[in-house]
Each structure stands twice: as C-alpha cells, then as structure tokens.
C-alpha cells in the first residue's frame, strides 16, 4: 500500500507542510478543533442525505481535518490526464450521435452504444455548440504508487461534490488561516467563474446578446440541493426548478415577477429521464415540457447535454484508452484499471473463478451500491453474487482489488493512514480546464476500501502545491 | 426575480413575523392571567388568545376548555398547527432553504440556528418555569433575523417582498391583538373604563411593546381611545396598522407594476392605505372596534392573496402572458 505521507519512515516532501503543522498544533489541539469544524459546516448548512438509511436527512458528511497534498508535478500529470480524458469523451459523444467513425473503425461495437440505457436516440443528429456534450466531467482517480494513478470511472452526466471541494477549503482557511498565508497552496475559488465562462461560451444559435444562465435543480428536497444553490450563488445565476420554466416557440423562459424572461444556457442537475415529460418520463414534474425540442432547434443549450451518460458507462469505460488514441492520436496519460468484461465468455470464466480477490460492479450502478468487494466478503455473499452474475453477465465488470493509496487522517491516537480516492472536475467550454484541487473521499474505517459518502466515507481538503512549494 | 423566489421570501418573512407575534400574544395572555379576577368569574384570556392567533380551528379541544397549558402547547409546539412557533420556524427555514441563493449567509444562519435550537427544546421545561425566558428568546430570534436582513440584504426586489410579507403579517397580527380585548369578557360588575378594563388595555399595549411609547406620546392614563390611536392610526408606532399599510403601498410601488393586474393591486393597496389614514378613533369606536378590525383583517388578507396572484406566486397566468409579450 502506498502511503502518501510517509516513505520508509520519512515524510515525503509534499507532506512536509502537513507534518510541520501537526507538530506545531499538537494532536490534542487539532482534535478539539474538530467540533469547531463541525459547527462551521452545520452553519453553512452543508449536509448530505444518505439514500436508503432513513434517519436525519440533514446529516453531515464527515470531514477529516488533515488535508491531502499533491505536489506540482503530481498535479501536472492529473491535470493533463483529466483534460485529455474529457476531450476524448466529448469527441466520442460527438461521434456516436453523429458519423460513428469509431464504430466503423471496429473499435467500439454498435450494440454497446445503441443497447445502452443512457444512449438517447432523440439526441442523434444534434450537435451542441462547440460540439461539447459533457461540460463538466468528474474523473474518479485512485493512486497505487508514487507514479501510478488509475482512472476508476468517468462521470459525464451531472457529477456532484465540487461544493465540498470549495467548502472544505473555506472551513480550513477559517480554522487555520496561517496555513494559507504564504501562497504555497494554490487557491480554488475560481470554479464558479470558470463554469460560468464555459456556459457563456456555449450559448445557443438563437441567443441574442449576452446569454442568460440558470441552474436547474430538482428542488430543495434533493440530497445535492445545497450544492446546487451554492453553485448558483458562486456564478450569480438564478436557481430554477422545472415549474419555473416553460417553452414557447422553442425558446425557454423563466417565470419572474416582471413576467417571462428568456434563458439561454441551463446547467441542469436533474437526470435525463426527468428533463422533458414530452420526450422522457411523462410523469416527471421536475422537468420542462418541450425543452428537448427547444434544445434541438437551437433555442437553448443544456449543460451537460442529455445522452452524455453513454460515455461514462462502466462497459464503455474499458474503451476510453482506445478513444484517446483514436480521436486525439495521443497515448493516455492516466491508465484504466485492468478490467474484465463479464459479457465476454473467457473474462466471465476468469471472474467467476477469482471472485474472492476481485471487485465486481454493476455496469449501470453507481454510489458504491450493488458491488462485491471479494476479499472483504463472506463465502455466502460471494455465492449469492455469483448467482446474480451468471444470470446477467452483460450487466457486470470486474477489476482487481487495488491497493489504494492511503493519506493520514486525524484519529484519537494521532495520524492514521486511510484509503482515499480523488475526483477532479474538468470543465469544457472555449477551453478544457480544471481548478487545482478535487474531491478527496476517504474511507474512515480502518482497512475499508469504500470511500462513498453513502457508505460511511468522509471528505478532506485537497491541496495542490505551487511550483517549488514542496521544497519550501 | 423568479416568482417562486419572491413567494419564498414573502413567506419566509411572514413566518418569522408570525412566530414573533404568537410569542407576543402568549406574553399578553400570561400577563392578563396574572390580573386579579373577581371570584366566581370564568377566566377567558386563553380562549381570546387562541382566537386572536387565528388558531381556534386547529385547537384540539372546545374553546371553553382553553387553559394556559393547552393553549401554550398548541401555539408553541403542536406540529398539527401550522402557526405554532415551532412550525413557523420550520416553515421559515424551509422557505429560506429553498431560496438559499436569495438570502445572505447571515440571514440563513440566523434562521437555521434558531431552528436548530428550537428542535432541541423539550416542551416540559420550555412551557413551565422557563416560559417567559422562552418568549424572550423567540422575540430575540425574530429581531436577529430582521437585523441580519436589514444589515446584509441588497435593497432589491427580494428585499421588497420580504418587507411586504413582514408588513402584511404584522398588520394582521396587530389587528388581532387589538381584538383580543373584545373577546376577553369583562365581568358584569366591572364597567368599561373601570380598573380591570384599564389593566387589560395596558396588557395589550405591553404585548405590542408599546406601553412606554404610549406614555411618551399621550401623557395620559391608558384608555381605549389612546390604544386604538396608537395601534391603528399613529405613524410613529412601528406596529400600527397605518405604518404597515403605508409601507405595503410603498413596497408595491417600488417593486413596480408590469401588468394591468399588478397595477390594480397597487391601487387596491393605496385605497386600503387611504381608508386607514382617514379613519378617526371616535368613528372606529362608534362603528364598533371589533367590526372595524374584522373588516380590516378581511381586506388585508384579500390584498395578500391578490399580491400572490398577480406576481405569479401560483405560477398561474404567466404562460398566457408570454404569448402576449411575443
């Protein structure tokens, strides 16, 4: 297991700043600051509702106070790799909803696309402004050694969590302002402007003058509502719900106290299936009737475009390195985790024989639900899972159990290593770029590999040091 | 501004004001109960408090069984009563949460923290010995929310809808508070203008935080004419009907009328303002204070409904409007 802070007993240069800080403050003092951190989060109102657990819907996502650190050169690789990946995924989406060169070239089989639940035939032939379908891509990364990072999965629909990135930093800088005074840690507060600029750059053809932006939320009962309102605030745009919008002659309007007002670019945080009851689920009260027609007519741009999810499916994932070569003519900067496609007979056979050492996931699943972590499962659990797998092999992929890197957390006994992952958020508009940070999720239980917040994971502030920062 | 946002801010503000007004009523009730009542007469303060709060329909028992204990429980904690202090706070918070981008962090903090503290309160301790302290706490939280609105919000349309909500709620509450006196029966042996009558008016003034102001402004003993003048006609009182309706008309003017229907409502508000401005204390009393107040309560609530309708709170006819503006 790769320990991000320690290398043979010595502190790695990137973590010097953390080691000094912990020594200066002392574990006791840091532990006592935890309560203060919690009350800051509560005051901000940042909470995370946990699906299927009942109880307090306003539960706080646990925050660990010890930041995770990346050096400048480490970040350079993550940045280049994530941008490359987002560019390739958008090229793929442009291609499959258009000419389908990658199918003709025999790289991705057609049934993988057309048979995919996230594929939206209604988008065929529609090319969004600048050819971008997925304007915000979350790339989930894990680290296994000093130099190796793997992409665990891509998130092309409506990846969430960026508000934690910004709020974790906010809380840290309120608790320990002196840490940020010498500008070694690169700031993260440009996210709102970056996203707003990207949205402005993809105004639809029918837009006249400055585009009006809005963020579409399912409403304040949604578990990510805090994030929606936070982001709307950061961008200074209206936070709208479906019933606030309506479509007349392929143009979208908001209901305002001054009467109807045009909206040109909508960052939607509701799922495809709820977007337009005329096209998708007819029972959806969250969506806007006619919005898909308006989009195709060039009256509005939807960010991210419907149908973008076909690119982040776990079955499509296995083809991403090929996409990078095919569309960009480059070698992937970040590798995929070696993956067995259970849809293929040989792979299935291998997976069934090695279940106790593999991680098996549902192709369409998310949030850490419905997965099997072989080494952590009982014999009965493995047998039950094998039965599900045999019944629907196409629905599963398998990966080796990775030795995820560990970063230090604050525990009663001092610093203790726990497994972490990372989700940087790549924004595509006129350019493709990201803020120097990402969402670090941490498995707070000792030995656990599951970092999902719905399964008891926590979050950390994530630092990227400026050039030369780790030598300071 | 989004109609839904205007609606949310309007109601957030109404619920905060209502919570505080319920606390004032309970305060008045406690004070009246402490007044001497002749032996053999049945106390009616708590039934009258219930009527003044507008909560008699949600009260689970017959009105004549109203006591301090069951009225306080109903007006403070009862989840079945949308106007109970706890429910008001919950609704204010839900509205603020849904409008999170339209309020500042300070305003959100003030409401959210109040809710967090309220949630932790136990009925037994709160309604018992700690009751006066609790009522002070409610008023202090109301002041904190108002203060943070005043100190941190942009003076834009959202602010105007917040003021509208506050003023409509306050006008309604002041009218109801004045009407409490009508419902508290004076024992037969006591005449209007007698000692108990005086004490009851004094408690109404205290509930409106206006007893000291009364002395400064009128320099005479507390009587019906003075109290009605202060709480209906006097622009110097921040809780008088006059100051509320004037402010409502001004806010509507600032928001502006963009449609015929909005214009009609602005005129309706000005008329109500005129009506109160022209009312003289003697005329009100000879018309019947209770009757006059009842008319006023009907007018102010009709106005509130019309405001909601014409600014699209219910989402109603906005679509038709879009067709017209094409």
UniProtKB/TrEMBL annotation, chain A:
<dbReference type="InterPro" id="IPR051680">
    <property type="entry name" value="ATP-dep_Glu-Cys_Ligase-2"/>
</dbReference>
<protein>
    <submittedName>
        <fullName>Circularly permuted ATP-grasp superfamily protein</fullName>
    </submittedName>
</protein>
<dbReference type="Pfam" id="PF14403">
    <property type="entry name" value="CP_ATPgrasp_2"/>
</dbReference>
<dbReference type="InterPro" id="IPR016450">
    <property type="entry name" value="UCP005522"/>
</dbReference>
<dbReference type="InterPro" id="IPR025841">
    <property type="entry name" value="CP_ATPgrasp_2"/>
</dbReference>
<feature type="domain" description="Circularly permuted ATP-grasp type 2">
    <location>
        <begin position="67"/>
        <end position="443"/>
    </location>
</feature>
From TrEMBL, chain B:
<dbReference type="Pfam" id="PF04168">
    <property type="entry name" value="Alpha-E"/>
</dbReference>
<dbReference type="InterPro" id="IPR007296">
    <property type="entry name" value="DUF403"/>
</dbReference>
<protein>
    <submittedName>
        <fullName>Alpha-E superfamily protein</fullName>
    </submittedName>
</protein>
<feature type="domain" description="DUF403">
    <location>
        <begin position="1"/>
        <end position="311"/>
    </location>
</feature>
<dbReference type="InterPro" id="IPR051680">
    <property type="entry name" value="ATP-dep_Glu-Cys_Ligase-2"/>
</dbReference>
